[in-house]
Automatic annotation (TrEMBL):
Lineage: superkingdom: Eukaryota
Residue ranges of domain NPH3 in the record: 199-473
Name the UniProt record assigns to this protein: BTB/POZ domain-containing protein
Family: Belongs to the NPH3 family.
Source organism of the structure: Pyrus ussuriensis x Pyrus communis
């Protein structure tokens, strides 16, 4: 910080209640009123240097004591006193903190070079150009003091010159930065890091008012010399300096406080670069939480949700964990915010068409992003499931919001359901059913299926589904293995003995089928016993479900086997009837002693004997 010392005389101003005067042998003949303070001064040191006082005294006449009111002087009584001390030759110290009010007051009093050489205004201009604008922190400090005198500072060009000086230094390459700056990031020390960081300027400009900060960011962005990530970092640092931390303690609730922070949030959101990745998604999510608490405009909320949805795949579980400050919501975690961001992500994923080399690449990119978000949401659900006040409806809504392609497997959602059932032991059957319906048992890994079978918290229906799909998968794997292994026995001809070729087949039932019928009854009986014995335990639940499926399968196999045996028996009966009829016809024809009645009976017998074989002979002719 640079200073300038003007004047050599000691300070002789003193105050008596609401009166300020200077110690002098000559009596006071000049009274200046500023607000509630009266200054008892002398016309000789003041009038030669102040053009405004010369004009006002010319209209006051020849009275012995002149009284003038200067209530509208910029900077008030403090700025006027500096100008008065300069006229008296009293020592004053100028710096970036008091330059702006002194310069505005000197301009107001017309203490210019045209009134008297070596006046106050040219000295202040020289100090401003040679010291303040050349320094980094001096320019920022002087710019911040212009907040109290916006019109005067704007008309005198102080704001524009300060902003130009700051922007010029921001664009300076880090290797050429030789001035002091503030950089208090965790883990950074200047002794260990000899190089200047690229974002060295972000903390110092965060001391500015939001309107001045907007002017600097706008000027920096207009040059297109800095990457958007640096702009985003500056916005992040500014938000950390000014906005309340809603993750720790509830912030203040005064109307002035709320209105000020609403203005800051609106300004920051409007300055975020359009480039994806310019700001971290965790920062965007924090802004949404603060925006909801402050009650910002719907336009700002919508923009924050859109930007957060675009970068949701970059988030971590810690980025999604925010406490809920709403008195209407008993839960601790702000799950509604995550659901709103997820819905925005899904809407944008349907609309966006990234520039890809082919449709296949585009689909792979969308699928990869969707899978990342799916894992993120399942991990978040495992965290919020531990909240004892979390209603099952919100958990189900968030879990069902993801499309099916977002989950490659259901291991993550199963773990979340298991944690929720563990923390909510008094959950009703209807809520359990509603919670478990989002689980797809076919997408569980073998380890998770083994755990689900032994899980006492799951409904019986889920356990049955897990066992069913487990057996279906084992059967499919066995069938594939059998198909891959060639069966050489089917190529070998079966040996036929003469006795087997001459003797007619006997109608017999294989012993294996008889044993199957007996075992079928035994399985049903055993299932009932197992159900009565183990229905209260986990193993009984699993065995009972397994036996139910085995009974259903055995019933179906026996029904098919019985149908096959019935068809075979009917075929054998028809074959025996045809052979008997042919033998009878041959005997009648050989005797030759039958009459007309016998011939008629033979014809009937031939017709009767030929009916069963008609269909078979017709099939042969075909």
């Amino acid at each position: 910080m640079k200073f300038m010392k003007i004047g050599t005389k000691p300070d002789t101003f003193y105050a008596e209640e609401a009166t300020r005067t200077v110690i002098s042998d000559a009596p006071s003949d000049f009274v200046i009123q500023i607000n509630n303070i009266n200054y008892l001064l002398h016309t000789f040191p003041l009038l030669p240097k102040c053009g405004l006082l010369q004009r006002l005294c010319s209209h006051s006449g020849d009275s012995e004591k002149v009284s003038i009111e200067l209530h509208d002087i910029p900077g008030g009584e403090d700025a006027f006193e500096m100008c008065a001390k300069f006229c008296y030759g009293i020592t004053i110290n100028l710096s970036a903190y008091n330059f702006v009010p002194a310069f505005c007051a000197a301009k107001f009093l017309r203490m210019t070079e045209s009134v008297e050489k070596g006046n106050f205004v040219p000295k202040l201009e020289a100090f401003f150009n040679s010291c303040i604008l050349e320094g980094w922190k001096d320019s920022i400090t002087a710019l911040q003091t212009t907040v109290k005198f916006p019109e005067w500072s704007e008309n005198l060009g102080i704001i524009r010159k300060c902003i130009d000086s700051i922007v010029e230094k921001i664009h300076t390459p880090p290797a050429k930065v030789s001035w002091s700056y503030t950089y208090t990031r965790p883990g950074y020390t200047k002794k260990q890091h000899h190089s200047v960081p690229k974002d060295w300027w972000t903390e110092d400009i965060s001391d500015l008012d939001v309107d001045l900060f907007r002017c600097i960011i706008t000027a920096v962005r207009s040059t297109y010399m800095l990457p958007p990530q640096l702009i985003g970092e500056a916005l992040h640092v500014y938000a950390c300096c000014w906005l309340p931390d809603t993750t720790r303690t509830p912030p203040q609730t005064g109307e002035e406080f709320m209105e000020k922070n609403r203005r800051i949030v609106d300004s920051i959101v409007s300055m975020i670069p359009e480039d994806k990745g310019a700001v971290y998604v965790g920062f965007l999510l924090r802004l949404i939480v603060i925006a909801n608490y402050l009650g910002v405009s719907p336009v700002t909320k919508t923009e924050l949700l859109r930007r957060s949805g675009l970068q949701l795949e970059e988030a971590t579980v810690d980025d999604l964990i925010f406490p809920s400050h709403s008195p209407a919501d008993p839960e601790f975690y702000y799950i509604d915010l995550v659901l709103a961001v997820l819905e925005s992500f899904l809407v944008l994923s349907r609309r966006q068409c990234p520039a890809a080399a082919s449709e296949l690449n585009r689909s792979a990119q969308v699928l990869g992003t969707m899978r990342k978000v799916g894992k993120l949401i399942d991990s978040y659900l495992r965290v919020v499931a531990k909240d004892v006040n979390m209603p099952v409806s919100k958990v189900v809504s968030l879990a069902e919001a993801l499309p099916d392609i977002a989950r490659e497997d259901h291991d993550g959602i199963y773990k979340a359901i298991n944690i929720y059932l563990k923390e909510h032991g008094d959950l009703s059957k209807a809520d359990k059913k509603r919670l478990c319906r989002i689980l797809d048992c076919q997408k569980l890994s073998p380890e998770v299926r083994a755990h689900a079978v032994k899980n006492e918290r799951l409904p019986l229906r889920i356990v049955v589904q897990v066992l069913f799909f487990e057996q279906e998968r084992d059967r499919d794997s066995n069938s594939k293995t059998a198909a891959a292994t060639p069966d050489r026995r089917k190529h070998k001809p079966l040996p036929v003995t003469p006795s087997q070729s001459q003797e007619p087949r006997k109608q017999t039932v294989p012993a294996s089928r008889e044993s199957n019928s007996h075992s079928h009854d035994e399985v049903k009986f055993g299932a009932a016993n197992v159900h009565n014995k183990f229905s209260s335990s986990t193993t009984g639940k699993r065995d009972y479900a397994l036996l139910l499926m085995q009974n259903k399968r055995s019933d179906g196999m026996l029904a098919v086997e019985n149908e096959r045996k019935g068809v075979r028996s009917e075929t054998q009966q028809v074959d025996h009837q045809g052979h008997d009829t042919k033998r009878e016809i041959l005997r009648e024809g050989a005797s030759g002693s039958a009459g007309a009645g016998s011939k008629l009976d033979a014809k009937k017998m031939i017709q009767r004997g030929s009916r069963p074989d008609h269909g078979r002979d017709k099939g042969k002719d075909r």
